[in-house]
Give the backbone structure.
Amino acid sequence: MTEAIKDVLLVEDSPGDVRLAQEVFRDADEAVRLHVAMDGVEAVAFLRQQGEYANAPRPDVILLDLNLPKMDGRQVLHHIKEDEALKTIPTVILTTSAAEADIVKSYELHANCYLTKPVQLEAFEALVKSVSDFWLTKVKLPIEGKS
Amino acid sequence: MALNGIKQVLLVEDSPGDVRLTQEAFRAADESVRLHVASDGVDAVAFLRQEGVYADAPRPDVILLDLNLPRMDGREVLVLIKSDASLKTIPTVILTTSDASADIAKVYEMQANCYLRKPGELDAFEALVKSINDFWLTKAILPERAREP
């Protein structure tokens, strides 16, 4: 796992946040390949390898924003955790919402973890780095279904 | 997050040595962690349901759960947690010596929030406890305690 490529799917509609996450992952871990879906429909197509995503890899970890165009992050989470083939993929919510209802609902929908996006650049970078350190280094990820 | 800044952690672990190590590592990492220990699955469930001697037990912010436990297996404890409407939102981190990929996939299917393997070396064990504290008890946003005394 340490040497292998780690595929991360970032579902995020803010280009600035995407850019930042790409930079932090690049610095933190060269083995990470970050894929981006800009809305919920794209995310589901990626995960189901539909259309232009026919050759998309199965992500090791998904980072999912809640407020997304076309299909909401909550719906994407529901799709992931209801799908036998996808439900074991750790899905980390990464959102600006700190509303208790969103936190509880996400854990109820079996989000593996809930993180709020800090607004300061350094704090955002530190958070992405800790996601990389913890989820892609310390945590044992399921390898079943990984091609 | 946690009330009064105290972070309640329930460790479900039958090895006294691992319990001791975990206690020491948390004490070194973060003074605001209060570590509760259940040494088998039956005790863990009684703690979570506030039964018997655990009538005044706090709701844990995070549960650290070994898989191989006396009396009631960790997998059974996990199923009980994740099928209980009032307990299912508590992040449950599997911490076990098992490295079998079947176990790993299985517990993610059973909605474990994350799977960590106990390292055999002392330093690595301490580092892992520290990273659990840094990530789950510092960075992660946890649900407010639904249960009030």
